[in-house]
Description:
Elements: H1 16-19, E1 22-25, E2 32-33, E3 36-37, H2 41-50, E4 54-59, H3 66-75, E5 85-87, H4 88-100, E6 105-109, H5 112-120, E7 124-126, E8 135-138, H6 146-157, E9 161-164, E10 170-171, E11 178-179, H7 181-192, E12 197-198, H8 204-214, E13 219-223, H9 226-235, E14 240-243, H10 250-253, E15 264-266, E16 280-282, E17 285-288, E18 291-298, E19 301-308, H11 312-328, E20 334-335, H12 337-343
Parallel strand pairs: 1-4, 1-13, 4-5, 6-7, 6-8, 8-9, 9-12, 13-14, 14-15, 19-20
Antiparallel strand pairs: 2-3, 10-11, 16-17, 17-18, 18-19
Helix pairs in contact: 4-5, 4-8, 6-7
Amino acid sequence: xxRAAGRSLLGISTPLAITYDVALLDxxxxxxxxxxxxxxxxxxxxxARAAGMRLAFVTNNASRDPAAxxxxxxxxGVPAEAAEVVTSSQAAATVLAERLGxxxxxxxxxxxxxxxxxELAGLRVVTSSDDRPDAVVQGYSPDxxxxxxxxxxxAVRAGALWVATNTDxxxxxxxxxxxGNGSLVALVAVATGRRPIVAGKPQLPMHAEGxxxxxxxxxxxxxxxxxxxxxxxxxADTDSLLVLxxxxxxxxxxxxxxxxxxxxxxxxxxxxxxTQPDVERDGLTMRCAGWTAxxxxxxxxxxxxxxxxxxxxxxxxAVLTAAWAARDAGAAAAxxxxxxxxxxxx
Length: 346
């Protein structure tokens, strides 16, 4: 039931787990945060499976192979098999094989998991730019050295096809955000004056890899990041569910651009087995499950107000629909701070 990508939130009277055949699930911020599970995730995913929805765990992280990711999920109480895990390493390997053909030589800059994905795709791994590789693939590894990046730059300068698993500028850690693969890709880009083909979210190869491996006919992208999960779903013209357990907060959604708007919204993964109340529209006044939100304009500014009672997440649906409608009507920005405080999302 794909709608025009990113226009507004949709309502649906049946649970998402029944409507969509496969959930393409991001991991960090959706199923777990760092080493810790999100408490509602495992029960919600079990209910989604029981309703007939298949699960695929789709990650931009190229440093771990599918078996390691599945083992981590099992340890957190989420049953998973390696075949249900889709990584940006696999997506990158598919891009290489499709462009170069089986047996092409590839310089791998990254983890053992990335090397394994390249080999499984029927490509030949080389270790030096002196081997004149047909391509170089770059992914994150905490063990990368300057010498590895130097070999990458030399191969790229010599004309090798350059593929990056992803361009996430940062990655989370217990100590805070660390430089991600995108930061290292930027270093090579500055040194060579070239830009890579990107396989990971939000680019299409990652989505296509998930659909191909699962055989999905009506997938739902589930994530916590606007610039990877939600943008990637909209690029692929696929419906999406944004959960508020990760990096995106309600305050981030008020003035969000069209390409970053999800189809559905939920506090956490219980949204997979819940209904999504429709938002009734009357100009810039929106009603959703007991809540009424309106966009009032004065002195060139738009203020979003909300009244009513019910689940806060339904009030947030009304508030966001009003804010997005005001923006689409030409408002530069909307102030929803009082409404978000009223709902407990400030």
